[in-house]
């Protein structure tokens, strides 16, 4: 089974080479047969990669220590779920997951791309094949997960205990679906550049892929953030860690792409810019892969460090980013420009969005790479931390967030900002009320906190206003409002939901950062502590035994007003003997949207233990908002518009456009 | 055999995926202008909906309609050569097709023959543990015993059998646990207590700590003549610098031990070394087990030295293959110091530190340990 997986991987590499070259020749020579090769080969390549991945997962599930990768990252005593997730909890396996998703998307284009023009489809699949081929080669040459050990050791070296968590089952697959999803946008862009033309329907084909990739990337980042929050025991949800930035940059660029693709689709404008953004977004995904995998950055994510891998990835990076940008430079001038628009218009708003988002991306990029550059030149180690990002990224985001509710309400081509402002009066009033309530009743000390809450409410109410205005609220009869509401395109709901989610996330961040409280103290069993109106009693430490670890569980009772126990929170310190590592499992109690978070520190000599407590108001909204954003993308994906673009035979024979539509 | 059949089938399938589209009948793809027309048509109908919803003024809608119509007209002018049907395949096309079909089996079989291990079967752990014990290696037997004890943790006899095996495999902390479990479940015995003491001492790199001492003393209470306990207790005294008491202890042992006891030579050696005053800094890793002692006692001094050298070299080699072994490194460093090979001891120390990183806890432990042996990391 193991060797079958290995062989399937090699075969998939061979197919990806064919997938690159044959359709590309076919498109150049206008040979339909050669172009048609791309489809079946892409689907078969996906099937083989899936077989290969299944073989590796099987080896993990059955603890086959004759596979070096399994021996290095698994242990027979691990619960089955962590044995399986361990498949991608290491460098080799995660690269295999990467290509699995890449070929999966390639297979989807092949399977559902029958409505694409033949040459475009062939070129897209060829570019996709080229990305696949280089990564297959990378895996086979430097990170082969199927290397064997003979004789096989009897016991493995265990998975990194921090990764022995359900988060590993969700975070990497989601993140990779996002990263790699943008490869399709990249392939479409490069294909358009190879052909030297962009069809009017190009943006419609690319948009669903952008939406899918953006949706998964949003989920992946949110999940990663929540995982770090509860697993690392520091109570923080975002650390501006270079690896986090590596996933955040494609998200920012992808968000810009999502918006500029709308302009391109509706108005045929911003074509060249959209193409460039698609290339940049995937380039940033590749850069993220490089930063994490090359060992340039040391962090939890750098499963293994090996210079040859770094050099190899650097070559891939140069090839794809350099190559695509060079192609862009050659071909961009041959693409036709689209429609004109007034600065105050939907297009104008989306351009503003793009300006802010790309500047923010650049800021994060500088903050991430600058320390590396300094280290390379002067051997000094510096770190660019939260203060830098708070000073640069924060001020960039605030005007953007203020502008968000205006965007969807502005008309295309030429908008009326005063009319829009009038429609947003209610949202503005709600935001103002939120500011006043916060300043007067909750915390008068911080003006920023109150304004932050106001900004969040502005976004939330602005999103609701968008739906209300488009349903005709206040201008037509109630019965018609409902009919209009039901008849609104799905993409309108998608937009509103995504913007609503953004508001919720903002509210969560502001609430946690501005109104959170924390305490660090040393507690004996039986002692109680007060934090933001909650009373906790420490009941003591109890030893317990897990399948492959032993732990000291600290039990805490949350006391009600009458002194009775309303909930029990446990936080534990686990010790994994195989890797000789300890981890802290935080104890979390969710109350409404807020959370009580506690983690155990060191034990004192007198039987006391250090306890860190946090009260995190509205913290779950940070991730809840991300889920709402994902839902927005999902709803938008169901828009009927995205299914158009395929010429149906019947309509084509009907000939010209209905004359009624012509002026 | 089965593997080759599967590989052949997979190769065939992959080749067909390339071959079939190339061999199929003529195809006609849709021209891109058809797609564009569809998009423009949809844009027009959306414009109508926006007007109905009052999102756009009628005058602006007219303007937008005119713009879309202009694009449609441009579409009709451009792209007149709406892609003629595929020409007859030329020589070049045939060549590309042949190369592509051949490339699949050639590249895959060629690469796999370099990278793969086709003769190595899968070895799921449960299968390995289920096979005939006579064919199993010691590792597999131990793993099987561990699986048994994980299911029946109260089987005292199982722990009792496994404990000395752990000790011999140098899995000292596992040996400590096993001895403790055996004592807890099957009761005290001199052999178990002495074994526990030895395991604790070996886990600490040969240092007879207070815990180990307590275990040895418990053993002596049950069997005052237990040689292992007596030997290590004297060693503990020597380590504390109480050389005279240690010597006295060993001499008393020597007088009481029967002529054929395997411990005689170990005691004699310890006495000789304590006479050289070197015991205080470097002590043998553990009491030699019976087999080693038997072999060593019948050897000439040169042979014995050669055997010790081989053992140390074996440990050194083991650490090169499996370097994350804290106890192993400490044992190696001490062995070199005892053998008087200071340079190699220093080299081992630096390598050990390099494995764990110079600011790790292990590195600090190593350095402190080396200093206690009178060794520094650099010259």
Task: Please give a handful of descriptors for the protein shown.
heterodimer; A: 663 residues; alpha+beta; five-stranded antiparallel sheet; globular; B: 379 residues; 18 helices; 72% helix
Furnish the topology, listing elements before pairings:
The complex is a heterodimer of chains A (663) and B (379).
Chain A: H1 2-29, H2 32-36, H3 38-61, H4 68-73, H5 80-85, H6 91-112, H7 118-142, H8 166-195, H9 202-231, H10 242-267, H11 271-293, H12 307-331, H13 346-378, H14 386-403, H15 406-409, H16 417-423, H17 425-442, H18 447-470, H19 478-487, H20 490-515, E1 517-523, E2 528-531, E3 534-545, E4 550-559, E5 565-576, E6 581-585, E7 587-591, E8 594-603, E9 609-616, H21 620-637, H22 649-654
Antiparallel strand pairs in A: 1-9, 2-3, 3-4, 4-5, 5-6, 7-8, 8-9
Helix pairs in contact in A: 1-3, 1-7, 3-6, 6-7, 6-8, 7-8, 7-12, 8-9, 8-11, 9-10, 9-21, 10-11, 10-13, 11-12, 13-14, 17-18, 18-20, 20-21
Chain B: H1 2-23, H2 32-53, H3 58-77, H4 91-115, H5 125-130, H6 138-151, H7 156-168, H8 172-186, H9 190-203, H10 210-222, H11 227-239, H12 243-256, H13 263-275, H14 290-297, H15 301-321, H16 326-339, H17 342-356, H18 361-372
């Amino acid at each position: 089974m193991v060797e079958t997986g290995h062989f399937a991987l090699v075969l998939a590499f061979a197919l990806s080479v064919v997938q690159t070259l044959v359709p590309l020749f076919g498109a150049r020579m206008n040979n339909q047969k050669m172009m048609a090769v791309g489809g079946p080969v892409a689907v078969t390549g996906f099937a083989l990669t899936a077989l290969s991945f299944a073989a590796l997962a099987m080896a993990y599930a059955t603890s086959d220590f004759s596979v070096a990768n399994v021996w290095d990252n698994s242990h027979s005593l691990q619960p089955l779920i962590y044995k399986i997730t361990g498949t991608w909890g290491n460098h080799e396996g995660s690269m295999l997951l990467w290509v699995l998703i890449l070929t999966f998307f390639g297979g989807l284009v092949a399977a559902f791309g029958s409505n694409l023009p033949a040459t475009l489809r062939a070129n897209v699949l060829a570019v996709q094949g080229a990305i696949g081929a280089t990564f297959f080669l990378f895996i086979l040459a430097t990170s082969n997960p199927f290397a064997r050990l003979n004789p096989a050791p009897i016991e493995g070296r265990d998975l990194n205990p921090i990764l022995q968590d359900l988060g590993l089952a969700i975070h990497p697959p989601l993140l990779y679906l996002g990263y790699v999803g943008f490869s399709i946008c990249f392939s479409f862009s490069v294909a358009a550049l190879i052909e030297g033309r962009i069809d009017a329907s190009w943006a419609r084909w690319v948009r669903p892929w952008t939406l899918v990739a953006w949706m998964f990337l949003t989920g992946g980042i949110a999940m990663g953030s929540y995982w770090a929050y509860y697993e690392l025991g520091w109570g923080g949800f975002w650390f501006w860690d270079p690896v986090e930035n590596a996933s955040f940059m494609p998200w920012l660029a992808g968000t810009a792409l999502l918006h500029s693709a709308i302009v391109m689709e509706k108005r045929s404008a911003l074509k060249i810019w959209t193409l460039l953004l698609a290339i940049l977004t995937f380039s940033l995904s590749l850069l993220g892969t490089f930063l994490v995998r090359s060992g340039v950055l040391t962090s939890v994510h750098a499963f293994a460090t090996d210079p040859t891998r770094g050099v190899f990835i650097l070559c891939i990076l140069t090839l794809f980013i350099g190559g695509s940008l060079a192609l862009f430079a050659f071909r961009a001038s041959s693409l036709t420009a689209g429609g004109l628009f007034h600065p105050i218009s939907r297009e104008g708003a989306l351009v503003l969005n793009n300006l802010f988002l790309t500047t923010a991306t650049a800021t994060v990029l500088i903050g991430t790479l600058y320390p590396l550059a300094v280290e390379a030149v002067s051997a000094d180690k510096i770190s660019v931390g939260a203060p830098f990002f708070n000073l640069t990224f924060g001020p960039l985001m605030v005007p953007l967030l203020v502008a968000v509710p205006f965007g969807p309400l502005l008309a295309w081509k030429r908008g009326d900002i005063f009319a829009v402002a009038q429609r947003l009066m209610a949202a503005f009033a709600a935001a103002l009320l939120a500011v006043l309530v916060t300043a007067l009743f909750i915390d008068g000390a911080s003006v920023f906190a109150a304004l932050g809450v106001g900004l969040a409410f502005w976004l939330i109410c602005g999103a609701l206003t968008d739906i209300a205005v488009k349903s005709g609220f206040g201008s037509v009869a109630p019965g018609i409002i409902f009919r209009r509401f039901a008849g609104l395109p799905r993409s309108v709901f998608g937009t509103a939901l995504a913007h609503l989610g953004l508001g919720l996330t903002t509210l969560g961040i502001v609430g946690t950062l501005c109104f959170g409280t924390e305490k660090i103290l040393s507690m004996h069993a039986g002692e109680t502590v007060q934090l933001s109106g909650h009373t906790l009693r420490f009941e003591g430490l109890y030893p317990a035994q897990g399948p492959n670890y032993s732990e000291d569980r600290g039990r805490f009772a949350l006391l009600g007003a009458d002194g009775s126990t309303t909930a029990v929170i446990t936080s534990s310190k686990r010790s994994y003997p195989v890797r000789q590592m300890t981890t802290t499992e935080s104890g979390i109690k969710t109350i409404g949207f807020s959370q009580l978070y506690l983690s155990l520190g060191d034990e004192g000599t007198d039987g006391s233990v250090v306890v860190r407590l946090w009260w995190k108001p509205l913290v779950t909204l940070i991730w809840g908002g991300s889920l709402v954003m994902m839902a927005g993308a999902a709803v938008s994906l169901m828009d009927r518009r995205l299914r158009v673009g395929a010429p149906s035979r019947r309509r084509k024979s009907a000939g010209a456009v209905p004359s009624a539509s012509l002026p | 055999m089965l593997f080759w059949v599967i590989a052949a089938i997979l190769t065939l399938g992959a080749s067909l995926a390339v071959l079939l589209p190339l061999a199929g009948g003529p195809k006609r793809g849709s021209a891109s202008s058809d797609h564009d027309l569809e998009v423009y048509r949809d844009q027009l109908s959306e414009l109508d909906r926006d007007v109905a919803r009052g999102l756009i003024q009628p005058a602006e809608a007219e303007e937008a309609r005119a713009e879309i119509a202009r694009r449609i007209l441009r579409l009709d002018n451009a792209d007149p050569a709406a892609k003629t049907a595929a020409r007859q395949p030329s020589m070049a096309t045939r060549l590309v097709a042949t190369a592509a079909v051949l490339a699949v089996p050639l590249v895959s079989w060629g690469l796999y023959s370099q990278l793969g291990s086709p003769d190595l079967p899968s070895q799921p752990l449960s299968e390995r543990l289920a096979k005939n014990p006579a064919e199993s290696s010691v590792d597999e037997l131990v793993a099987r015993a561990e699986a048994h004890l994980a299911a029946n943790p109260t089987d005292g006899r199982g722990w009792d059998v496994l404990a000395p095996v752990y000790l011999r495999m140098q899995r000292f902390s596992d040996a400590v646990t096993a001895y403790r479990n055996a004592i807890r479940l099957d009761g005290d015995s001199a052999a178990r207590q002495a074994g526990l003491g030895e395991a604790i001492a070996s886990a600490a790199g040969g240092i007879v700590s207070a815990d180990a001492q307590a275990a040895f003393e418990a053993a002596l209470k049950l069997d005052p003549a237990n040689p292992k306990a007596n030997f290590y207790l004297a060693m503990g005294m020597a380590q504390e610098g109480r050389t005279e008491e240690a010597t006295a202890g060993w001499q008393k042992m020597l007088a009481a031990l029967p002529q054929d006891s395997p411990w005689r030579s170990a005691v004699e050696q310890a006495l000789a070394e304590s006479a050289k005053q070197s015991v205080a800094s470097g002590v043998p890793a553990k009491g030699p087990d019976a087999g080693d002692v038997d072999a060593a006692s019948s050897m000439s001094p040169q042979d014995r030295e050669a055997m010790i050298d081989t053992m140390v070299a074996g440990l050194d080699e083991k650490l090169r293959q499996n370097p994350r072994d804290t106890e192993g490194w400490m044992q190696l460093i001490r062995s070199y110091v005892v053998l008087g090979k200071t340079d190699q001891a220093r080299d081992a120390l630096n390598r050990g530190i390099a494995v764990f990183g110079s600011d790790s806890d292990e590195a600090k432990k190593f350095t402190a340990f080396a200093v206690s042996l009178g060794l520094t990391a650099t010259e």
